[in-house]
Amino acid sequence: MGITAFVCALVAALLGLKVSNDNKHFADEKEEKRNPIGLKGAAKLSFFIFGLLAISALVKRTLGSEALMIVSFISGLFELHGVTYANAALFVSGMLTAKEATIALLLALLASFISKIGICWIMNFGKFAAVMTGYLMLVLSSGILTFVIVNYPWQ
To answer: First and final CA of the chain: distance in angstroms?
Structure first.
């Protein structure tokens, strides 16, 4: 398990260095500096995350675990941190079993990668989108491989 994580981290670091070196010409562009952590943006994100938490709890109580899986997937398309927090809170409160929480988180993570790939293809159809899709698929497949190795019944 440790070797798999090390190899994944090494591959990600090498790919990051390659992408960084390939895009040096963008460093010369001048752009306006803005505060990335504005109060208004933080408040909007807080309300969105609270909304995900409230909706997840409501769906779990009224419609059950299967409906929560759908909510987790759809929420993962837009905001992974909020749905992760919501599912973790439901697990800690005893509303989700460990298996249900794991599946909900994996669905949200898969949805997150689907939306990232979609954004790449919508924003820049061509070589950049193909390369980024390859990188994202590499990260996703290494995560799937790690999950399978950790959860394989030989242990």
So the answer is: 12
